[in-house]
Structures are given as structure tokens and as C-alpha cells.
TrEMBL record:
Pfam families linked to this entry: C1q
Localization terms from the record: Secreted
The species this protein was found in: Cottoperca gobio (Frogmouth)
Alphabetized PROSITE patterns for the sequence: C1Q
PANTHER family: CEREBELLIN 20-RELATED, CEREBELLIN-RELATED
A GO cellular component entry from the record: synapse
Entries under InterPro entries matching the protein: C1q_dom, Cerebellin_Synaptic_Org, Tumour_necrosis_fac-like_dom
Lineage of producing organism: Eukaryota, Metazoa, Chordata, Craniata, Vertebrata
UniProt cross-references to SMART domains, sorted A to Z: C1Q (SM00110)
Protein name, per record: Complement C1q-like protein 4
Superkingdom, taxonomy of origin: Eukaryota
Record gene name: LOC115017768
């Protein structure tokens, strides 16, 4: 609307400046009208000026649209870079164990401390990487054999796209409780699936947020 109003004002101003005569003979080519009809020269120059302004406005509009798209992309990257979560196996005060099972099983950490970006799914226990970058991955496992001398099998594997990248394991009969911690930096791509797997025969026990799984973005690579 502002552009149309401006063109109208320019049209009126140029009409006075170039003394356009409405009785002048029309020409099919306004750029050559000055050569063919000196009486229409003012109209010719006015048309040229209006066309120049139209091209200028189109150029500026294209530039503004390009800058807008770049700003949208920057905002998207900033929002996606706020990716972090930290969860624990359970938040119950009663002592509970997860496992052992006859097959490998992903661990569904149910208690969420923080889940910026909503990349972690409580239902599946899987973190879906929102933005390519270098991430910090950390897993702490804890288990209780129930009594001194009983078989203890505290173990878990950190995996990316179903591929194990590092494992923590504690199997012995020397004490009742054992734990292990995994911390690793990993270059991940958008869409990668990160989860913790419980191997066959292993089990984790908890009554106070001992078993945790945390991931956060160190810096993006795009």
C-alpha cells in the first residue's frame, strides 16, 4: 500500500516536472517517444522514472525476503541448539529392579529432570538428535544384589542407531552393590537415535535416582 501511494505521488510530481500533455500523440514504444514526438517527451521521461522506481522496489523486496529467510534459519538453529535432557530410571521411593530379561532390552527412563527440545521420549527411552553437532553422552548404572555374596550383574550399553559405542559392566559376587559410569563425547547427525540397552542377564535396581541417562549439545556442526 505504501509503495502504491509513493508511486502515485511520484507520478504527480513527475507530471508537473516534465509537463506531460494529455493531447500528445501516443507511441507504442515510450522509450523512443522523445525522438518521434517532442510534445510527449515529458511523458516518456516520467515512464522511464516510474519503471526505474519499480525495479528498485522489486530489488529491495527480494533483498528483504532473503534477509527474512536467513533470520528464520538462524532462529531455528538457536532453538534447535537448546538440546539437553537428563532422566533417571524411576523416582519411586520403593526399591525396584529393571531386568534381568532373556533378550536385550532398551531401558525406558521414566523420571525426567529436564528435556529441552523434547528430543527424549519417555515411552521408548530413545533420544532423537534434533541438530547435527558434538554431544556429551553420560550413563550411570547401579544395581543391588539384595544380599552380600549374591550374584550381581550391573551392566548397560550406550548405543547410537542400534550400534553399541561403549559399555559399562560390573559382574561379581564380592559385594552387594556396584555401579559404573560412562561419559563420552560423540559427533552425531540430525535424526540419529541414542539409547541405553540392557544386555541379557543384567539388571538395574534403584530407589533414589541412581541410574541416570543424560545428553546435551556441546556445539552444532552446521
Amino acid at each position: 500500500m505504501r509503495a502504491i501511494l509513493l508511486l502515485c505521488l511520484v507520478h504527480a510530481a513527475l507530471a508537473k516536472r516534465f509537463l506531460w500533455s494529455p493531447t500528445a500523440t501516443p507511441d507504442t514504444d515510450p522509450y523512443n517517444v522523445c525522438v518521434k514526438n517532442q510534445g510527449s517527451c515529458g511523458c516518456c521521461l516520467m515512464v522511464k522514472e516510474i519503471n526505474r522506481l519499480i525495479m528498485y522496489f522489486k530489488t529491495m523486496l527480494n533483498k528483504l525476503e532473503e534477509e527474512y529467510m536467513q533470520t528464520e534459519q538462524r532462529l531455528h538453529n538457536i532453538k534447535a541448539s537448546r538440546s539437553a535432557f537428563s532422566v533417571s530410571l524411576t523416582n519411586e521411593s520403593n526399591f525396584n529392579c529393571f531386568g534381568p530379561f532373556k533378550v536385550d532390552k532398551l531401558i525406558p527412563y521414566k523420571h525426567v529432570f529436564i528435556n529441552l527440545g523434547d528430543g527424549y521420549s519417555v515411552e521408548t527411552g530413545i533420544f532423537t538428535v534434533p541438530l547435527s553437532g558434538v554431544y556429551s553422552l553420560a550413563v550411570t548404572i547401579f544395581s543391588d544384589a539384595g544380599s552380600a555374596g549374591a550374584l550381581l550383574a550391573a551392566c548397560a550399553s550406550l548405543q547410537v542407531n542400534d550400534e553399541v559405542i561403549v559399555s559399562g559392566r560390573e559382574k561379581n559376587t564380592h559385594d552387594q552393590e556396584d555401579s559404573s559410569t560412562i561419559v563420552v563425547a560423540r559427533n552425531l547427525k540430525a535424526g540419529d537415535k541414542v539409547a541405553v540397552n540392557l544386555p541379557i542377564g543384567c539388571f538395574l535396581c534403584d530407589d533414589s535416582n541412581y541410574n541416570t541417562f543424560s545428553v546435551f549439545l556441546l556445539y552444532p556442526t552446521v
